[in-house]
Write a structure and sequence with these properties.
Blueprint: H1 3-18, H2 27-41, H3 49-55, H4 60-68, H5 74-89, E1 95-104, E2 114-118, E3 123-136, E4 143-150, H6 154-157, H7 160-165, H8 177-190, E5 197-200, H9 202-205, H10 208-216, E6 221-225, E7 230-231, E8 245-246, H11 247-253, H12 255-258, E9 263-270, E10 273-286, E11 293-303, E12 310-315, H13 323-330, H14 334-345, H15 357-382, H16 405-417
Parallel strand pairs: 1-5, 5-6
Antiparallel strand pairs: 1-3, 2-3, 3-4, 6-12, 7-8, 9-10, 10-11, 11-12
């Protein structure tokens, strides 16, 4: 950043925060919002209420009251976040990414704290769990946290006296995390946000109610599935009744998958080089209370450089959607991981030391506001788009010129060494006009495959 850009951030922040002025009835809480956001954007090593207040020259109790008792409209604040995303960052190919995050805490008084699996520590730990919905442009250049909500465990729901001590309202009850995620999607859609795709990890895929909720809302999805996820590769309603099989077994023993050749796809460029996976895809049907859901798509991906690494995806993409796009969405959960990393390491998302529900909820909301400012300024100051994370466009056109010829050639040679007869660009996808052809020296042997009738091409 240049000196002029740094000096201009103060004006940019004031203009940005003016968008939220009508969330506060008086000037005092409006000023406290700016203090809180500036504290989160500062270089303080710990961004809890006390150090942020002291840095601003005010009593810590002032910011504590701002979180716990000052009157301001939380719903309107969250709605303004959605409004700004829709107004200034709408993308017709936008991806909504659902994930959760654990925040380790000591003691048992903080609202929602419980012993549960915490991804932050990688074990069962005493932590507060939050559920998040991230909005990402298709190329990942713009990404921001759209909604964050506290998960209330059953042990808290069943102890209403404990809830009252933490000032948790009576209407706040236990809801499964996938229900919270669906409600977040509803709020986003009601606020005018449009998603072309939804993605989530395998925990959500295993919840039939979550899948049904996405289908009821008419949302397209690509969800990662665990290896023991059960489904059919035929419509169970049209033949003899058979139990669904784990996808791991179907890959090994199903004729539809065994006889289908692996096709090699360039997914994206990473810091460690090109991300290249081999792929098979077939129609599938999922068990449901009504019998079966389908046809959907089962996509199996195998890491070219580590064949033991397999990923399974389930998608309701329509026939004709390029497989490159499905893969891009399936491998596209990194925006929520990056948002959480930024919020935790840069903005103090997990630094909260408040105990009551309202203060914790407001901390989550303000962190969304701060992150949106950070995302907007990053996009504004970046200038020309970087090609490091370039992904295929809506029509699946691969921009191989975005990665170095040497890196691309290295991946191609690794694929050829394993007797793969396909090139980096899947043959079922036509070459883009903007894609440079390989020179004779770099060219690797390829075999053109016609699209399989079962492939979602």
């Amino acid at each position: 950043m240049t000196e002029a850009q740094i000096l201009g951030l103060g004006h940019e922040l004031a203009t940005f925060l003016s968008e939220f002025a009508d969330c506060f009835g008086r000037s005092e809480p409006r000023g406290k919002l700016e203090t809180y956001v500036r504290g989160q954007l500062s270089e303080l090593p710990r961004k809890s209420v006390e150090p942020m207040a002291l840095q601003a020259g005010m009593a810590p109790r002032t910011l504590q009251e701002f979180l716990a008792s000052d009157e301001w409209d939380e719903d309107r604040l969250c709605a303004h976040v959605r409004r700004l995303v829709v107004r200034d960052h709408a993308d017709e190919q936008a991806i909504g990414v659902i994930d959760e995050s654990g925040h380790p805490k000591k003691g048992g008084q903080t609202a929602g704290v419980s012993r549960q699996y915490c991804g932050n520590t990688g074990k069962i730990d005493n932590c507060v769990m939050t559920v998040h919905l991230t909005y990402s442009s298709f190329d990942g250049e713009f990404r921001t946290m759209l909604d964050s909500e506290l998960y209330l465990p059953k042990c808290w729901h069943e102890d209403r006296e404990r809830c009252r001590r933490a000032k948790i309202p009576e209407e706040v009850v236990y809801r499964p995390k996938y229900d919270i995620a669906l409600e977040q999607l509803d709020r986003a859609l009601a606020g005018g946000v449009r998603f072309s795709w939804i993605t989530a990890d395998e925990w959500y895929t295993q919840k039939p109610a979550f899948l049904a909720g996405l289908l009821q809302r008419g949302l397209r999805f690509v969800l990662e599935a665990p290896k023991n996820f059960r489904l059919w590769l035929h419509d169970p309603r049209s033949g003899p009744e058979t139990p669904p099989k784990p996808v791991e077994n179907l890959l090994r023993y199903s004729r539809k998958l065994m006889t289908q050749p692996w096709r090699t796809y360039y997914v994206k460029q990473t810091d460690k080089g090109p991300l290249v996976w081999e792929v098979k895809s077939v129609p599938c049907w999922l068990p449901s209370a009504s019998g079966a859901i389908g046809p959907l798509w089962l996509v199996v991906a195998r890491n070219v450089l580590n064949p033991e690494e397999l990923k399974y995806f389930v998608s309701n993409a329509a026939p004709g959607v390029p497989l490159e796009v499905i893969l891009h969405v399936g491998f596209g959960r990194w925006p929520v991981e990056r948002c959480l990393e930024d919020e935790k390491s840069e903005l103090g998302l997990s630094h909260f030391e408040v105990r009551c529900y309202s203060a914790l909820k407001r901390h989550l909301l303000i962190t969304q506001v701060t992150h949106l400012f950070l995302a907007r300024q990053t996009l504004r100051l970046r200038g020309e788009k970087s090609g490091s994370d370039f992904a295929p466009g809506p029509r699946g056109c691969q921009r191989l010129d975005r990665c170095s010829p040497a890196a691309t050639h290295t991946a191609a040679r690794a694929s050829a060494a394993r007797r793969i007869q396909t090139g980096i660009l899947a043959s079922a996808q036509r070459r883009c006009a903007s894609q440079p052809r390989q020179t004779p020296k770099e060219k690797t042997p390829t075999t053109r495959h016609s699209p399989l009738s079962t492939a979602p091409m």
